[in-house]
Amino acid sequence: MAGKVVVITGSTRGIGFGLADAFAGLGCRVVLSGRSAGAVERAIEQLAARHGRERLAGAACDVAVREQVEALWDTAARAFGGVDLWVNNAGVCNAQRPLCELPASEIDAVVGANVLGTMHGSHVALLRMREQGRGHIFNMEGWGSRGEWLPGMTLYASTKRALRHFSDGLARELRGGPVRLGTMSPGMVATDALVQAYQQGDHANWRRMRWLFRFVIDPPEVVCGWLARAALANPRNGARLLWMTPWRLAIRFLQPRYYLRNPVAGTALEQIG
Length: 273
Fold this sequence. Notes:
Blueprint: E1 5-8, H1 14-25, E2 29-34, H2 37-51, E3 56-60, H3 66-80, E4 85-88, H4 104-132, E5 135-140, H5 154-173, E6 179-185, H6 192-199, H7 203-216, H8 220-233, E7 240-242, H9 246-254, H10 268-272
Parallel strand pairs: 1-2, 1-4, 2-3, 4-5, 5-6, 6-7
Helix pairs in contact: 1-2, 1-8, 3-4, 4-5
């Protein structure tokens, strides 16, 4: 595992930052990205305090812009000579409201980051990995990947459903070749993106589902640590790294007083009730 080069899009905060921290902790060389150069530098500084600066690099990157995705690969190649794992994590979640209440700009942002960004990332990584003769791409699943639906989440869930088909199809195309593709499914993680989606949405949706969220929401450190280890250990093409398995969820429901935990303590969602 040590020395592997990992590129993670959208890694200045949330799940992406948690993955960067986890991979770096396992001895990997990590390339971070985000839309703002300042945010990238701040994230690198945070990780450097724990893991050292020499194994970190980064670049500003809007994944919806093809040239910037190509430049991100070039940054990794200059810093570390190549890329072993490319994680298409960058994504945007809409405010949890019906589609008719969302501005057109929010539709563009969600589809641009989630669908176009993942397709650009997969395409760039695939072409460059074929040139170097190896590599593994991971696309990030989310709510809707398997057809799940919640009020106000139609836009976001539709993009994840589309990416499920894209990832399945691309994995089939890559059978028998030097490049592999898999997906990561982190479940619901207590990140800023999750908080904002429900805080800016209809609060009734949060209150209706909060009993279930007490069982399924997890801190990013736990989830990202598991995903990083699983990704490095996985040799298979088409693998799905699933954190919240039915078995894990069932065990939680059977644990006495597990429902009393508060995974969103200290966030704006706690104030909603």
